Task: structure prediction
Amino acid sequence: MSTITYEEVLSLLRETDQLIKDQSREADRRFKENALESKETDRRLKELEHIVREQSRQIDKQTRQIDKQTYQIEKQGQQIGGIGDKFGYFTEGMALPSMERILMERFKMTFIMPRVRIRKNGKTIEIDVLAYANDDVDLAVVVEVKSRVKNDAIEQLRKLMAQFREFYPEHRGKGLVGILAGVDWDRGIAEKAREVGFSTAAIRDEIFELTAPEGFEARRW
Result:
C-alpha cells in the first residue's frame, strides 16, 4: 500500500476547493437566471392581467351598449305595436258607418253592436262588429276588421265562428255568416277567405264595400 504524500493531499484539497467554488458559481448563476426568469414571468403575468382587465372593461362596455340597444328596440317595438293597435281602432271606427249600411241593406240586420266582448267559463272572445236579426231573417253576422289582412285573419275569424254559439246560446238557432273586412289585403287572401265561405269587404274612398263577386253566397255556419 502506497503512502499519500503531503503534496498529494494538498493538491486534492485544492481540487476539492475549486470544485466547491465552481459548483457555488454554477448555483449562483442558476439562481440569478431563475430570478430573471421569475421577474420575466411576473412581468408577463402583469401584462396578461392588464390585457384581461382591458378586455373585461371592453366587454362590460359592449354589454351596456347591447343592453341599451335591446331596450331601445323593445321600446320601439312597443311603440310600433301601439301604433298598430291605434290604427286598428281607427279602421274599425272608419268602417262602422259604412259597415252598418251594408249590414242593414244587404243582410237586413236590425241589431248592430261594435266592439263586443264577452267572457264565459274563463274564456273571452272579442267581436269587432256583431249584428243579428230575428223573425223571418233569423241571422247573425260576425264582422272581423283588420288594418292589414293576412292569412292568419282567416283562421281567427274561423275560430270566432266555431265559438260563437257557445258564447251566444240565445242565437243558437240562427244562421251565422262571417265578413272579413280590411284596408290592406295580402295577395290572394280575399279569394282564400271567400273559398272558406266568408264574405269580404275593403275600403274604397274611405267607405267599406263588399268585394265578393256577384252571385257569391256566404257560408251559413
User: Anything to note?
Assistant: The chain has three helices and six strands.
